[in-house]
Design brief:
The complex is a heterodimer of chains A (about 160) and B (about 130). With about 160 residues, chain A is mainly β. Helix content of chain A is about 5%, strand content about 35%. In chain A, the strands form three sheets. A five-stranded antiparallel sheet of chain A has the order 6-3-4-5-7, with no helix packed on it. Chain A has a two-stranded antiparallel ribbon with strand order 1-2. A two-stranded antiparallel ribbon of chain A has the order 8-9. In chain A, a hairpin with an 8-residue loop joins strand 1 and strand 2 (about 15-20). Chain B has helices at about 15-20, 35-45, 65-70, 85-95, 110-120, and strands spanning about 25-30, 45-55, 75-80, 100-105, 125-130. In chain B, helix 5 links the parallel strand 4 (about 100-105) and strand 5 (about 125-130). Chain B starts with 15 loop residues before the first helix and ends with a strand. The chains are: A mainly beta (about 160), B alpha/beta (about 130). At the A-B interface, strand 3, helix 1, strand 7 and strand 9 of A face helix 4, strand 4, helix 5 and strand 5 of B. Strand 3 (about 30-40) of chain A pairs antiparallel with strand 5 of chain B, so a sheet runs across the interface.
Chain lengths: ~160, ~130
């Protein structure tokens, strides 16, 4: 089980719930989320403005963390790897647009929070080929005198 | 990349177009705010052949007229964000250039409060949930 933030219907309150932690399917990785950005585009999901939403939804498409579990057939990631997933959370690699290299226009493109639960959660499962590697870097938080905090990437 | 810009500036509630023109006009305005009027207000600050790249999501109409675009040969392009490789290269750029995000952290248990801060424009400047 892990904690996730659910929105049960358009404009319903954000609530923290416990959800099952499933193993990742083939070609996917399960990520232990460290941080997730709160993007204004979340408003459009929250209001139900995107097509094909399946409630309850978990918002969050600015995700960074470490690989917790690797699905069958995934060769490029190991448990413990630092990774990130953004808006571009999956594509098919076989439609005309993908084969032309326009991956962002994939006819079957997937977005975390839209097509699968997003990053306002302790765990996210994403297609491995659309996860970005962060080898050798750590997310470090430093505070400033005026109270603002910066996320910092350091070797 | 080898280029160094002048000291970054922060503006609030000023004539953005006029300020950009004082600097010589922008080559690119990257419009991240979810506000069409704010995006359109920057168009007057573009230099010749300048480009407005729209990243902020809003269903509002963008109030830009053909006359705004033609004389300076301006363009407006939507950008739906990039691939996982773009994410990797962006992080590499941040490391090399010293660009860092200004964020406010909240634990997952405070997701509703963090969302409200974003929604009401109170975030300075990105709310980030931590697990």
């Amino acid at each position: 089980m892990h904690k996730a933030v659910h929105v049960t219907a358009a404009n319903a309150p954000l609530t923290v719930v416990d959800v099952d932690t499933a193993s990742p399917p083939a070609a996917h990785v399960r990520i232990a989320v460290a941080v997730c950005g709160v993007c204004g585009t979340g408003r459009e999901f929250y209001a139900g403005h995107f097509p094909g939403l399946r409630w309850p939804i978990t918002l969050g498409h600015e995700i960074a963390g470490t690989v917790a579990q690797v699905g069958e057939g995934v060769e490029d990631f190991s448990v413990g790897d630092r990774v990130a997933v953004g808006w571009f959370g999956g594509n098919c690699n076989r439609c005309v647009r993908c084969r032309r290299g326009a991956f962002m226009q994939c006819a079957r493109m997937q977005v975390p929070s839209w097509h699968y639960p997003g990053g306002y959660a302790e765990s996210v499962t994403a297609p491995a080929h659309r996860v970005g590697a962060d080898p050798g870097w750590a997310v470090v938080r430093r505070s400033r005198a005026d109270g603002l905090r910066r996320t910092s990437l350091q070797n | 990349m080898g280029c160094r810009s002048s000291k970054p500036r922060r503006w609030a509630a000023q004539d953005v177009a006029a300020e950009l023109k004082k600097l010589g006009g922008a080559a690119v305005v990257l419009a991240t705010a979810n506000n069409a009027a704010a995006m359109a207000a920057a168009v007057g600050g573009l230099g010749p052949a300048g480009e407005l790249v729209v990243v902020g999501v809003t269903p509002e109409n963008l109030p830009i007229s053909p006359l705004d675009l033609i004389n300076s040969g301006l363009s407006v392009a939507g950008h739906p964000s990039g691939t996982s490789r773009d994410v990797e290269e962006t992080m590499a750029f941040a490391l090399l250039s010293g660009v860092r995000a200004l964020v406010e952290e909240r634990p997952l248990s405070q997701a509703a409060e963090a969302y409200a801060a974003m929604d009401e424009g109170r975030a300075r400047y990105r709310m980030v949930l931590t697990m």
